[in-house]
Each structure stands twice: as structure tokens, then as C-alpha cells.
Amino acid sequence: MPKSEIILNAFTMNAVSHVNYGLWRHDEDQAFRHDDLDYWIGLAEVLEEGGFDAVFIADALGLLDTYGGGAAESLRRGVQSPLSDPLLLVSALAGASRHLGIGVTVSTTYEQPYLLARKFTTLDQLSGGRVAWNIVTSQLESAARNLGLERQVDHDERYDRADEFLTVAYKLWQGSWEDDAVVADKGSAARPDGLYADPARVHAIDHHGRFFRVPGPHIAQPSPQRVPVLFQAGGSPRGQRFAARHAELVFVAGADAAGVRRNVETIRALAREEGRAPDAIRFVSAVAVVVAPTRAEAESRFADYRRFYDATGALVHYSASTGVDFSDADQDAPIRYLETNSNRSLLRMFDDPDGGRSWTLRQALAPEGGFGRTRTFVGDPIAVADGLEDWLEATGTDGINLIHVVSPGSFVDFSRLVVPELIRRGRRPAGRPEVPLTLRERLFGAAPRPPVDHPAARHGFPHRAATSEARPE
């Protein structure tokens, strides 16, 4: 039986460093140029040439200020601080590529669906249907304080708000403009004044809910996908339920392969409860790769990179993500789960009663064989490809979010050395289609719009031909 193609995303952030803590100091790394448009255009060109499916841009809305009670260490160490807006990069990345998907992180907690729906429609229009939305509810207390709240909205309530946010967005994207609403008749005998959009085919959504009141229609005409491809990464029980209901691609994590597989299986089971098909969701996990033509060269390069790895920087990030100040913690003591209002799944990942192992901070964040919580593969192209295939099999995942150790070098090396080996094995396509696909078509081999078992489809119109006799001309 032929093996399926591996989903290949590049994983990054509009920041000095992402999860490659301390590597911004390495001479090969160029991510410190994240405020330079040429850096991003060059990155898009590398990923396009390398045949990547998408670039996945993470985001947060506050400085990392939990460790030591302030943001000093995150700023000093360049740990996702400073951090610029990723949404504003999408047009530039789309303009520098023809096939590359662009997934961008935006929080439902601090946006309004009416406004965000228009932004994603616009970006999907300009990219020819290549946009994805990584849906988050935000985890940083600093974001809440700076956006007008005394403290974060409670964890599960953030997901309740996100559920309604998605419902409103689906109504705007799917249930406002009919397929044939845009006539674009500049003038004819029947219509001497012309007709751009038929008002009878543009509908108000009349949404009145707990969190949102949106009476009117969508302000923008439909884009190629109507709904951006929906990414999600929730790992708490409430987050997994949200992912099972809405997500098309889930970024899943775990302390080891078995932990990742358990999370995949949980979400698949929940998705079936939501009435979705078994293969409705694709799963990816984060990995890092250090590859060279020979194993010896790869190991030498890995040792060089490890000299710059900042374990304290990893602890700064982990503290902010979980809401627990680990600045005075014993790094050789076991990590214990706490019910916080931040990212609960990152704590549960290393104190999982089903995992059968007790993890210390040092084992989790500063392992000898890798970079922090990320599974790392080091070797020649064949060894890396073998490792990736084994990892996908062990975890039950469909692809990877490739983290850069150095940027863009890690993506260049992977494209030049690993991608040809994956093509040889039938795990990546050998070329691009002449006519670019939408991202949903690329990932699922299906139509550009959400399938019938997705909740967005419940708000769509049946297709009506522009010549329908049901409406006067």
C-alpha cells in the first residue's frame, strides 16, 4: 500500500527567536532581521522552492513576564520579545510565492468576528485561497492586562467565546453572500445602469448571542476558500473538544511519541462524536532537523548549535506559557500539574498519569539530544527521512511543523537534502501543479471549501446558478 504524502509546514514567528532559544546569536541565524521585509520575502522564496505546503506563523499578544515576575529575562535573551504582528506579513508572503500556504495565528479573545472575518477574506482573496487561521484563545496574563482586563478570562470561558466567535465567522463567510451574488454587469440592454452585486443575494446574519451581536451581512465578497483552513493546537480537555469541532489541521504535542499518539486518538474520537469523518482532521507535530551530507557533518553542526542553546530562555518561555514562575524551581525536581488559567496542556504533557514517566524541568527543556521540548533529528538525509517516517508512524500524525534551529538555513538544508529523499520515497510530491491549488485543496485533495461534515458547512447556501429563474433579472 503506498504511503501518504507528509504534510510539510515551516514553523516560525515574527520575532528575534521562536523556540530556538539563544540561537539568534549564531552567525548563521537571520531571524533577528524579522523587522526587514526582505527577510520574509527571502524566506517565502526558500519555502516555495523547497515545496513546503505552508509557513505556520505563531504569535502572542504580550511580553513573556512570568519568569522572575517581569519581562527582563525575555527581553535580555530575545525570547519571543520583541514580537511583531504576523497578520501584516501575509500579503508580502503571498506576493513572493504562488503555491505556499500561509497560516497565521490570531486570538479570538481580543478580536471581533466581524472585523477578523473581513481580514481573512481579504487575505484569502489576495493569496488566491492560500490562507489558514491558527485559532488561539491566548494564554498570557500580560496580554489581558494590556488589553483592558484586570486578569485573563477564565480558561474554559475563553473557549466558549471562541465557539461563538467561529459560529459568527461561519455565518459571515458562508451564509451572507450567495455564490452568484456578484454579477459584475457593467451595463447591458437589460441593465443599462449595470449591476455589480445583487442586493437580494446578500443576506444579514442577524446573530444575537452571549458574546456577540452582529446583525448585518459580511462586508466583503467571498474569497476562493470562503473559510480559511482552520489550524488549532488546544491540548486541554476543553481545547481538544474545540479542536475536534472546528479544526482541520491540529498541531499536537506530547512529552514523547506515545503522548502525541494519545492526544491524536483523543481528538479523533471527539471528532467522531461531533459527527465528523475519521479523516477530517490532519495532525502535525513540531520537530527540528539538523541535516548534512554525512552523519559526521550533521553531528558536528548539531554540537555547534548546542553551544548557543539557552536553557534558561526555554524556562522563560515555559513559565509564561504555563503561568507558573519557575525562576526559583529545582530543575531536577519532577514537574507537577497545576490548574492554571494559562496553557494547562504544557503542564499536563510532562505530568501525565497515562505517560508512566516523571519528567524534570531539565529533562523537558534541556535534553542532551535536542532543543527543548522539540523532537530533534540529526543525521544525513537518509537517516533523517527514516527518523521522520518512524516518528509519524509512532505518533499517528500526518506531517510536521519544521522548527528552524537557524533561519533560513534550517529550511534551506531541509529543502536541499531531505525533500529529494522524501520525494524518492513517495512522501512528497515531485512537482507543483501548473495552476496553483488553494491550501485546502493542497492539504486534503478536496474542494476549496469546508466539507459537509464541518460545522461551517451548516451555514452555507446550496449553489444557485446565476441564471436561476427564482430571481427577477
Structural account:
The protein is α/β, with parallel strands linked by helices and 473 residues long. 35% of the residues lie in helices and 13% in strands. Strand 1, helix 1 (37-49) and strand 2 (54-58) form a beta-alpha-beta unit. It is globular.
Distinctive features:
eight-stranded parallel beta barrel; 13% strand; 35% helix; two-stranded antiparallel ribbon; 473 residues; 13 strands; alpha/beta; 15 helices; disordered C terminus; TIM Barrel; globular
Would you identify the regions where 5 or more consecutive residues have pLDDT less than 50?
463-473
- How confident overall, as mean pLDDT? 90
Percent of residues in helices comes to 25-40%
Beta content comes to: 5-15%
Quick synopsis:
This protein is an alpha/beta fold. The chain is built from 15 helices and 13 strands. The chain has a single domain, classed as TIM Barrel.
Q: Helices and strands in order, then pairings?
A:
Blueprint: E1 7-13, H1 37-49, E2 54-58, H2 72-77, H3 90-95, E3 101-107, H4 113-127, E4 131-136, H5 141-146, H6 155-175, E5 182-185, E6 195-197, E7 207-208, E8 213-214, E9 229-232, H7 237-246, E10 249-251, H8 257-273, E11 282-291, H9 295-306, H10 311-322, H11 344-348, H12 361-365, E12 375-379, H13 381-395, E13 399-403, H14 409-424, H15 439-444
Helix pairs in contact: 4-6, 6-7, 7-8, 13-14
